[in-house]
Design brief:
Keywords: Endonuclease, Hydrolase, Nuclease. GO terms for molecular function: endonuclease activity. Pfam families: DUF222. This is HNH endonuclease signature motif containing protein. This protein is mostly helical. The protein folds into 3 domains: 31 residues; 146 residues, no CATH class; 119 residues, no CATH class. Helix content is 45%, strand content 9%. The protein is built from 15 helices and 9 strands. The protein has a 3-stranded antiparallel β-sheet with strand order 3-4-5. Strands 1-2 form a two-stranded antiparallel sheet. A hairpin with a 5-residue loop joins strand 1 and strand 2. The longest helix has 32 residues. The radius of gyration is 27 Å and the shape is globular. The C terminus is likely disordered.
Amino acid sequence: MRSIVADPHSASTDELVEAAAAIATELAQRAAPDSGAACMELAEKLATSLDQAELALAGLIAVVDRTGEMKQWGLPSTQAWLRCHMGMREGRAKERIALARQLPRLEQVKAELATGALSYGYAATIADAVQRLSEQDCAAAEDILLKAAGEGLSAGKVARLGSKIHDLVAERNGDDQPPQDVRRGYERSWLTVSRSLDGGCYLNGWLNPEDTAILDGTLAPLAKPAGTDDRRDLGERTAAALSSVLAGGHKATRVTVIAHIDTLTGDDTPGRLRDGTPVPAEQVRRLALTAGISPLILGKGNEPLYLGHTVRIASPGQRRVLETLYDTCAVQGCEVPGLLCEVDHVDGWALGNSPTDIDKLTLCCGWHNRWKHTHPDQIQITKADGRYLYRALPPNGITRSRRSRSPDDRLDPWHDQQLAA
C-alpha cells in the first residue's frame, strides 16, 4: 500500500490528480463490505465523489478542446481523443464534450456539481438542453431545469422539459417549429434533399463532429483552386468536389468477394466479404459464373504480388486491393472507412522517386494523410499480415501513459516507456 500525503488546499492540480489516482487504484482492489446497508451508504458517497470528479474532468477537457492540443497528437477532434485514448463510447464522449463546453454558461450547475448537491446525470442533461439557446434563454432554462431536478423529476423527464423549452423559444421567435437540428437532437448526422422545379435540388442538414472530420478530409483536398485562373468561390469548388466523389464512387455496382482459387474449382473453403462475413463456397462459384471477375493475386500473409505502377496516382486496381485489405484508415484508432480514405505512399512521395507499388501503399484519411506529411517524426509504422499500421506518437519530449486496449498496444512507445519507469 502506498502512503498518500497531500494537503488539498496547498497541493497543485497535478498532485491532487496523482493522489486521486492512487486512492482509486487502492479502492478498486478492496472487497466490498458484507453489509448491504453499509454498501448502499458507501456507494452513494462514492457516486457523489465521482460526480465531483466529473466536474474536474470537464474543466480539463474544455482546455484541450479550446486549445486543440489533441491535433498535436494525431487526433482530428476532441471526440476522437476521448474515444481512442480514454476508451469512451461515442455517446459518453459527446456527453462530456457538451458539459465541458456549456459549463461556463451554467454557473449554478457548476456550483451545485462542485458541492455534490447535483449529480453528473442532471448536469449533463441540462448542458445538452441549452446547447442551442442564447445567453438570456440559457439562464432562464437553467433556473427551470434545476428547479425540476430539485423537485425529483428524473433525468429523462428533465431532458423532455428541455425539449419543451426549445419549442417555446421557437414559438416566441415566430418560428412555426424549432429547427430540425433541435428536433432531431445532435447524436446522429442527418441530411434532407429538396427538389427544385428545374431538376436541381437543395441540400440541408447537420453533421456531427466525426462526420464533419470525414467530410473535411474527403472534400477539402478536392476543393482547392485548380490554378491561378480558377475563379470559382469555395462553395462552387466544394460542390464540384462532392460531384467528383459521387461520380467516382458510383460507376458500377461492385461487391468484393475474397476466395481461394481452389474454391472456384470445387473446394469447400468458403470465401469472405471485406468485413469478414463468410460466403459459402457454392455461392462464391455462382457469383463467379454470373458476375465479372477481377482477380487480385495475393501471396503468403496477404502480400500483394502484382498490380504495381510507377506513377504518382494509384490505379483503380491498386485501390481495390487496398480497400480489400483496409476496412478503415491505417492510423490506429481512426475509424474513417477505407472507402473514404486517400491512397498514401508509406515512404512518402518525393520528387517522383518513391514508387507507387502496391506493397508501398496504404489507405489514410485526408486529415491523417496531411498530418503524417507535416509530422513525419510522430508516426510509427509497422507491418503485419500484409497490412501497414500507423501509430501517432506524442510530440517530441513528452512522455505519458495511456490506457491499453489491445495486445498490440504493447508495441506502443508510450506503453513501453511507462513499463520501463
